[in-house]
Amino acid sequence: MPTLPADSSEASLPTACRRRWTWVLFALLLAFQLIFQAGHGAQQSDLGGDPDEAAHAVTSLMLRDFYAVGWKQSPMAFAKAYYTAFPKVALGHYPPAYYLLTGLWLLMVPSIKGLFLLQSGLAAGLGALIYRYSSRVLPMSAACAAAVLSSILPLTLKQTQFVMSDLLVAILCLLAAAAWVAYLQRPGYKHALGFGLLAAAAILTKGSALALCLVPPVATLLSGRWRLILTPSWWLAAVPVGVLAGPWMLYSTRITAEGMIHQPWAEYVQESFIFYARALPQSLGWPLLILVVIGLARWSLLGLRHKGLPPGVAAALALLTGVACICLCIPAGYSTRYLMPALAPLLMAAVTAAQVLSCLSPRFRWQLMVVIVAAAFAFTAPWPQKNVQGFSQAVMRSDLPEAGSTLTRWLVASDPRGEGAIIASAAFGLVQRSPSPLQILRGSKELAKSDWMGRGYTTDFTDDAMLLKKLDELKVQRVFLDLSVPEALRTAHEKGLERALSAQPTQWQLDFEQPITRLLGETGVLRVYRRL
Predict the structure, then answer these.
(1) pLDDT per position as a tens digit, 409-423
(2) Where do the H-state alpha helices sit in 307-388?
(3) Which domain does 228 fall in, by range?
(4) pTM over 0.90
(5) Which of 38, 145, 307, 481 is the most buried (most CB within 10 A)?
(6) Contact 391, 526 (CB under 8 A)
């Protein structure tokens, strides 16, 4: 089987040695991630850094509470009651696998900080897994460099600062690719089913993991083992995906369609290509991106020379191809986090190029890898800083109701980030959530109508009197009006609330104003009104 050029002492590392280094790297990368989180604001920030962050956290908390106290109830009835109290539950818009994991984790570490600890562990696990995967086809120095790079790049660091599922998706995608490598090396039903189960788990974590559907055909062809397509075991890999992930994908298709961008497909492909062409240099840095291009060219030449690539390289390229197709062709929006499953093959290509350069002076291979890591660090975007403050303080100042007390209703008027931050802070702050003594209403849902993406926005009132009557009908006792949202982005119901509440001091009293800090240095105030 063709292999990449490697120093013999490193290429022949026994499995036990690779396993030890995997755990050593995991421990070192975890320590780094925890220090980074503590020093760059994640542990102290509210869950308002991304519109989806609070939804992931509240849904995780719902699963935790179902495991703890709700398992005797109907799961659907429990979920509906939970959503009524905390309308940021996103199960349906997003698949369940991430929440099954985070819900179990919150049983042990029941706090927002516990979720960030899990994100650090996932980032370190991804780095260690990249080392383990790469060490089968690359020297130890190159594999270690790929692992370290995966942890220090802003692309990964940003994911540790947010409660998001992308790190878990990247891990499952790489595990699935590794399972297909095992199949290509030792074809059989066991490895085919292993790939199918991991692929199903990845798809049930995030729909973008459908990129894995391209791994079997592309990797099989790139490795020159196309005859495997004629064997029954090759096709067996699709069975777990169809049986386990298929029903969920069919069920949620209508729901997830609301989150898609509605524009001509050709136009979306063009715009997404431009977006990711600009995002890659910012995410990887030009030195690393140039090495990626050289590494991909090296793999192409190797494949042509030997009429097939090593299975590990073929599967990595297949994963990269699948992620590229999903990012460019599926109109789910533009975000660098969608590149996370492609991080492993991109870094493998980069260190492959560095390995070729190191052949000029094999004695200094480790030193060259250190220089490459330093250069990548120097030319990427600055390390991300998270600083979202004030929402949780406003919730704590508003006297959360005690367990068993009369139902209290709050209404929050803000953008999705602000609404989510307040709902998540209240949910995590309550001692009892099932049944909940607090019900939070979203202004964007109770005072207006729109789809998941905010399209088709209309208000449910025509004047301030009708708006105040609506608050009476909803029996709202406290209103959180977020004026930290830039004025140009405030909606009609937010502006209406500001006018109506200010004009009715005998009905609504301004309880306090809470200073708010958002991302990118945005600041403002959150007004909290109390019904008299």
Answers:
(1) 999 999 999 999 999
(2) 311-329, 343-358, 365-379
(3) 8-39+111-379
(4) yes
(5) 145
(6) yes
